[in-house]
Amino acid sequence: MAAPNDEERAVGPRCHHGSTAMLDVPFQPFCAFLGTLGLLCVAMTGTWCQHWRGGFSLDGGSRTFNWHPVLMVMGLVVLYGAAALVYRIPNTWSGPKLPWKVLHSSLALGAFVLTVLGLAAVFRFHNSHGTPNMYSLHSWMGLGTVLLFSCQWAAGFGAFLLPWAPTWLRALYKPIHVFFGSTILMLSVASCVSGINEKLFFSLKNGTTEYKLLPAEAVFANTLGLLILIFGVLVVGALARPSWKRPDSDSPDSRQ
User: Fold this and answer.
1) In which region does residue 209 sit, left (phi positive, over 0), alpha (psi from -120 to 50) or beta (all else)?
2) What does the alpha-carbon distance between residue 87 and residue 93 come to, in Å, rounded to a whole number?
3) What residue ranges define each of the domains in the chain, with the CATH number in brackets?
4) 161, 141, 87, 145: which is closest to 111 by C-alpha?
5) What CA–CA distance (Å, rounded) separates 234 from 185?
6) What angle do CA 153, 110, 101 make, to 5 degrees?
7) pLDDT of residue 23
8) What CA–CA distance (Å, rounded) separates 254 from 119?
9) pTM
10) Helices (H), the chain
11) CA distances from 18 to 22, 43, 116, 253 (A)
12) What is the pLDDT of residues 198-210, one digit of tens each?
């Protein structure tokens, strides 16, 4: 077989580069879509609790419980996902990193505060009704996720924001921080989806159309669960995409 000539060798890489470029999705449109999806998840959670579950209150009754899913989806999924994607914004690839570190940690802290408020709502509801706490798989997974989240935030603050943290410690902890960032997000999604399913099983029984008959509330809440799952998968996919990662400051192609 004859060896390819210079023209054929030149065309091959160009075709490969063109096909790769066609598959590359710009970050900004993706981020806009993801933000819209996140807002839709929060809006649907609020609509579910308002329309089918009676609305919101702070009296310790069932309407107090309704703050739990809204705050958890808003904090543990959407706001946490936004915090995770801060370093994928191309504007963060040049100039000082400190402002972006502060933004990343502030968004994560805001997510943590909303999550704690969501936990307070469900514990208050359980205690006022004499319902045991921490007996279901959903509750175990959710509380474990929150505890892991708190450790992640504290360790990240100590390693990356405190000025006296040594460089070797930051280099050692960075891949661990990145790994648990994605892990916590997927655990958050799993906790939310299992919580939606558990709530439907508890609510759609006596005096209502049973869950197995798929009433309108079940269709709406199941759709919400799928959208939350899609949101989490897209965030993890964005974190894993090589072309959207911040260049290493020691690499030749770094813009910093």
Assistant:
1) beta
2) 8
3) 27-243 (1.20.120.1770)
4) 145
5) 11
6) 55
7) 54
8) 42
9) 0.86
10) 6-23, 27-51, 62-65, 67-72, 80-84, 98-129, 137-156, 167-203, 216-240
11) 6, 40, 48, 21
12) 999 999 987 778 9
Structure-block tokens of residue 206: 């006596």
Q: Which pLDDT belongs to residue 251?
A: 40
215: which 2 tokens? 């009433």
CB atoms within 10 A of CB 31: 16
In one-letter notation, the amino acid at residue 63 is: R
Q: Would you give the distance in Å from CA 49 to the centre of its chain?
A: 21
Tokens of 253: 């192609």
The alpha carbon of 54 is separated from its chain's Cα centroid by a whole number of angstroms, namely: 27
Give the tokens for residue 240: 């894993």
Is residue 49 within 8 A of residue 66, CB to CB? The reply is yes
Residue with tokens 């648990």: 180
Buried b (16+ CB within 10 A) or exposed e, 120-130: ebbebbbeeee
**pLDDT score of 112:** 97
Euclidean distance between CA atoms 163 and 147, whole angstroms:
25
Q: Considering the chain, what percentage of its residues have pLDDT values greater than 70? A: 88
Sign of CA dihedral 76, 82, 86, 88: positive
Note the pLDDT tens digit of each residue in 65-108: 999 999 999 999 999 999 999 988 888 788 888 899 999 999 99
Report which residue type is found at 226. Answer: L
